[in-house]
């Protein structure tokens, strides 16, 4: 079923910066599939339903929190999952996407809310500048990063 997972999105960002409003908890998952087959989240949803958690739209509500499982979808998300950090939250071990990968994903998606969060990460998070530079170059995001850092006119 799920090979690896890591917390992503706005919730992951709260491990590095001041919290921002968000509706759900995004979890990147690596799902073992046969090449050429569609990825199905049905086994995850079925197991969680057996455990008493109810699906709601694209989420499963777990202890009152809407959780969205997002299969890794490109090289950047695969790398983000692979490089996720092991952390403890409320004495519970978990994995969280690195801030540099969060920023790169936000630049890649470029939705207005993602660009606002990317600026927040750039201002508040402790980013490894050398790691970030190589990451952005590798995924063709250097220009977007420069544009984000330019002051508004």
- Total domain units: 1
Strand-pairing-aware structural class: alpha+beta
Counted by DSSP, the helix tally is: 7
Q: Which oligomerization state do the chains in this entry correspond to? A: single chain
Question: What is the percent of helical residues?
Answer: 40-55%
CATH topology: Beta Polymerase, domain 2
CATH class descriptor: Alpha Beta
Strand content: 15-25%
Strand order of the largest sheet: 1-2-5-4-3
Q: How would you concisely characterize the structure shown here?
A:
Helices cover about 40% and strands about 25% of the residues. It is α+β, with helices and mostly antiparallel strands and about 150 residues long.
Can you characterise this structure?
Helix content is 42%, strand content 25%. With 153 residues, it is an alpha+beta fold. It has a five-stranded mixed sheet. A hairpin with a 2-residue loop joins β6 and β7 (92-96). The longest helix is centred in the last third of the chain and has 13 residues, at 112-124. 24% of the residues are buried.
């Amino acid at each position: 079923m799920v090979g690896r997972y890591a917390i992503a999105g706005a919730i992951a960002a709260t491990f590095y910066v001041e919290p921002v409003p968000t509706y759900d908890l995004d979890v990147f998952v690596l799902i073992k599939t046969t090449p050429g087959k569609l990825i199905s989240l049905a086994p995850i949803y079925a197991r969680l339903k057996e455990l008493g958690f109810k699906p709601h739209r694209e989420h499963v509500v777990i202890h009152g929190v809407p959780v969205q499982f997002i299969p890794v979808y490109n090289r950047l998300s695969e790398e983000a999952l692979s490089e996720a950090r092991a952390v403890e939250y409320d004495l519970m071990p978990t994995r969280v996407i690195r801030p540099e990968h969060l920023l790169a994903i936000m630049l890649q998606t470029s939705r207005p809310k993602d660009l606002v969060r990317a600026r927040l990460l750039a201002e508040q998070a402790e980013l490894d500048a050398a790691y970030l530079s190589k990451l952005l170059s590798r995924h063709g995001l250097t220009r977007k990063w420069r544009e984000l850092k330019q002051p508004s006119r």
